[in-house]
Design goal:
Keywords: Membrane, Transmembrane, Transmembrane helix. With about 400 residues, this protein is mainly alpha-helical. The chain has helices spanning about 5-20, 25-45, 50-60, 60-75, 80-85, 90-110, 115-140, 150-165, 170-195, 205-225, 230-255, 320-325; strands spanning about 280, 285-295, 300-305, 315, 330-335, 335, 340, 355, 400-405. Strands 1-2-9 form a 3-stranded antiparallel beta sheet, with no helix packed on it. It has a two-stranded antiparallel ribbon with strand order 3-6. Strands 4-5 form a two-stranded antiparallel sheet. A hairpin with a 2-residue loop joins strand 1 (about 280) and strand 2. It is elongated. The protein starts with 6 loop residues before the first helix and ends with a strand.
Length: about 400
């Protein structure tokens, strides 16, 4: 049987094969070899690749063509119903389940972002794909897989696909088959193998997995061309790859972000990103003013410097800074407390009659009690009388700093 036929001609040949599937295998292959040569000659009579309608106008429907072959070769006509003679309905049903339900659970797991959900849904998806695929192959009962095209749903699906294929120019269609198909096999294997091995490592492990996946994918593609029963397993996985491959390429090369197998962004663990907000902050909260108080709770005016003598400057937020028009908007100062815009009794701020205030709108808590120092015993022979030249020590008042977080 000639395997170089493409498009509507190949579909027509598959439908003729389904009509003649009751013939002995050896005789069937001989008949189909002659049919393939005849279809090649008929296709050459057209300027462009013939459509399905053109072939049926020229040769009749596949069933009519097959009946003519039976009559010419002396084979008895078929008397069984389509469902009895093909057994394709159960096989097609299991194939649809494998191609829809299985990929759905598998994609939910891949993009869930949670390892437990990925494991659970991934297992359910793979079990559905291979389980339903196995049942579909068993339903064929050793018959050619293309007998599903003889069922009502199979025939409608084939006609729909054929209508889409007929819209593609013949030269483009040929390039897609000869060039696009191997490229798809490689891309499918790279993403599948690399993504799987990325679960167990990174870098070289994922690269080796991608190369191994590409080799296995090409082998499976070639195997499927020889044994169509593999389609019950390959088609569902192709559905998953059809979604993952474009998404992975877009996110990796267009978006500039490398996404892991679970749909989560994978960042370089060796890089660090530390963000330090401008100005003064405490525990991640910005500070726009500082209110110093002495030990008695009285407000004092101070200048603040850091351990290197650098002024701790903050942006001034008084009326001139908020509503000024003379370049006073960006003034800095290390004198605290700073003057800020004071609202009126109702809590409103009038830009035309703006007033400044450096008073805190809170009462500081009392300073913690200090433990009195324990007197040191006087050694024997020493005098506790103070020296007449000694100066009395003056206690230095302490200062309590209270910060005002950014509002």
């Amino acid at each position: 049987m000639n395997s170089t036929l493409t498009g509507p001609v190949a579909t027509y040949l598959a439908e003729v094969r389904a009509e003649l599937s009751d013939l002995p295998p050896g005789e069937l292959e001989d008949v189909l070899e002659d049919v393939s040569g005849h279809l090649t000659e008929v296709a050459a009579e057209f300027e462009d690749e013939p459509t399905a309608a053109a072939l049926q106008d020229r040769l009749g429907t596949p069933r009519q063509y097959a009946d003519e072959l039976r009559t010419a070769a002396g084979y008895p006509p078929r008397t069984q119903t389509p469902k009895e003679r093909t057994g394709g309905e159960p096989a097609l049903r299991w194939g649809v389940i494998a191609s829809t339900v299985g990929p759905f659970f598998l994609l939910v797991g891949l993009f869930s972002g949670d390892s437990a959900a990925t494991t659970f849904f991934g297992f359910i998806g793979l079990a559905t794909i291979f389980g339903a695929g196995y049942l579909g192959v068993r339903a064929l009962r050793g018959k050619d897989p293309r007998v599903v095209l003889d069922t009502d749903r199979g025939r409608r699906g084939a006609e729909s696909v054929r209508g889409v294929i007929d819209q593609i120019p013949p030269n483009v269609r040929h390039e897609l088959v000869t060039i696009g198909q191997p490229v798809w096999w490689v891309a499918r294997g790279i993403v599948g193998g690399g993504g799987f091995f990325a679960l167990f490592g990174a870098g070289a492990v994922a690269v080796v997995g991608a190369l191994a996946g590409a080799a296995v994918s090409v082998w499976i593609g070639r195997r499927t061309q020889q044994d169509r029963r593999w389609l019950w397993y390959v088609v569902p996985l192709n559905v998953v790859a059809t979604i993952i491959v474009p998404a992975w390429l877009a996110l990796s090369f267009v978006g500039g972000t490398s996404f892991g197998v679970f749909g989560q962004p994978s960042y370089d663990r060796t890089s660090s990103y530390n963000y330090s907000p401008p100005g003064l902050s405490l525990d991640g909260t910005g500070i726009d003013n500082v209110y110093p108080f002495d030990e008695q709770g009285r407000p004092v005016k101070v200048r603040l410097y850091d351990q290197d003598g650098k002024p701790i400057n903050l942006q001034v937020r008084d009326c001139a800074a908020q509503y000024g028009t003379n370049g006073n908007e960006d003034r800095l100062s290390n004198v605290f407390p700073m003057s800020t815009v004071s609202p009126d009794a109702d809590g409103n701020i009038d830009p035309e009659n703006c007033k400044d205030s450096d008073k805190a709108d809170f009462v500081p808590p009392p300073a913690p009690a200090t433990t009195p120092a324990t007197p040191t015993p006087t050694p024997p022979g020493s005098s506790s009388t103070p020296s007449p030249n000694a100066k009395p020590s003056t206690p230095k008042p302490g200062v309590t700093l209270t910060v005002s977080p950014t509002r």
